[in-house]
Amino acid sequence: MKVLICFVILFSIVGTQATFSNAVGKKPLEDSRELQLQDMLVLLLVPHMQEKLAEVYSDVFTVPGSPDIYPYFVEVTHTERTNGFRGFDLLITLHVRPTVGPHIPVGEDVFTYRISPAGVELKNLEHLKGPNKKDFPPNYQDLLK
After folding, report:
1. Are the C-beta atoms of residues 50 and 79 closer than 8 Å to each other?
2. Of 34, 52, 67, 144, which residue has the fewest beta carbons closer than 10 angstroms?
3. Alpha helices in 27-117 (DSSP H)
4. pLDDT, tens digit, 9 for 90 and up, residues 7-29
5. Rounded to two decimals, what is the model's pTM?
């Protein structure tokens, strides 16, 4: 009987912790209006990010225009209205993992854009890390300078 009680208590504690730990930082498993709007915004910003990263990584890669950005490797980490409720001056922060070739990760970058009636303006670009040659397969190392 004591073993059964201990098992029930242990199971309830472990089960609760597992549920909580899986919920933290979990990506959505279902579509929603918010997720659709976020994905549309990412799609509209990808060309802006691609253009800037081509400049940032130009001294690293032999191929012009590298690296590539895929929307599923972009995470919206923060959004904010800078001028109050229903104001149309917004900031959006995106964490980007650019790739080359067959999705070889080449770094991490954080973009902050201002979106307003005046258009899209890059406010900040934080280059967190660049490519590591030892992470590249031998047949793709010629992409690096």
Report:
1. no
2. 34
3. 33-56
4. 333 344 444 333 333 344 567 78
5. 0.77
